[in-house]
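EI: anyone free to look at a 364-residue chain?
SC: sure, send it
EI:
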Amino acid sequence: MMINIYKVKCCLALGLSITILSSCSAQQGVTQPVKPPTLPIAKGEYINPVFTPILADPSIIKDPKTGMFYGYGTEDNWGDGNGSHLVAVVKSKNLKDWIYVNDAFVTKPNWKANGGIWAPDVNYIDGKFYMYYSYSVWADANPGIGLAIADKAEGPFVDAGKLFTTAEIGTPAAIDPFYISEGGKKYLFYGSYSDKDHNGTWAVELAADGKSVPDLTKKTNIAAGDFEGVMIYKRGDYYYFFGSKNNCCDGAASIYQVRVGRSANLLGPYLDKDGNKLTVRGSGTLLIKRNDRFAGPGHNAPIMRDDAGTDWFLYHAIESGNPTVPTGANRRVLMLDKLTWNNGWPEIKDATPSVTAQQAPVFN
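SC: here you go
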């Protein structure tokens, strides 16, 4: 059965409760939910999830001023009596112990009449913290991407306005931004999947100050319309594309997952391990998928490296035994797993979220 995942994602980001009957869940062997185990955690270990109740579509950055890690998540109503968190900000000194700090915004941006702030992407640029964010309502025909700037990692972030809307950029579902710089130039990758024509992941060049797109007609197709939540990671001679597929927000039945490809050039072409172009639907090498405990692992943050040189993968997932908060929103918790490399390709053990105590990142 065809599901418009973009609409599902938007609706749940606003804290609405939706139930979707998905034949694909049954086809992929989704089992009964498993309740979280109660396990002792020794010093130097951790167990997933590393932050609850929600930090969906996480962005993680290490503050160059303090060395602390900060995380940011899609606007959601946690059911804690505080209404919608306007991009929750959390912090950690070790990637495994996170505490809530505050919301990034005091008030919402005003360049759209209404909407939710989703999938923030925070970067340290020219001595300040730049947050590229999605702005949309459920089933929005014209969502867009904006920019907010702060002097400190925890904010407050002050809106700098709209970069573009879907209508202005000319590609469907213009959300899920990701910033990267290369060769003295700044780029923004974006795109959330749907079944519309010309949908997909795209890249545009930003102005030198990162605050606008000089030419909205110049954009490069990076991946097909069944990917979303792009993250690009440079390692060695390759740029690695991490993108999420399937239904992010179908509660305990979610089959969201991350697939990868790589390219010798930032703007592609990106190929999976079998040589398939990511611009073709159905491509991508599997990195992580659901298990009985955690459904819908995906929309990962930038890869973090610890002091031992180990790479760490942060993403959200849904606890199948506790899939929603009281408001009905999907309980997309923050997850952490070790990322290894095998013959030039990233791997996560068993290609699924860890469910037992793991050795924690090392920080001196």
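EI: The mean pLDDT is 90.
SC: 👍
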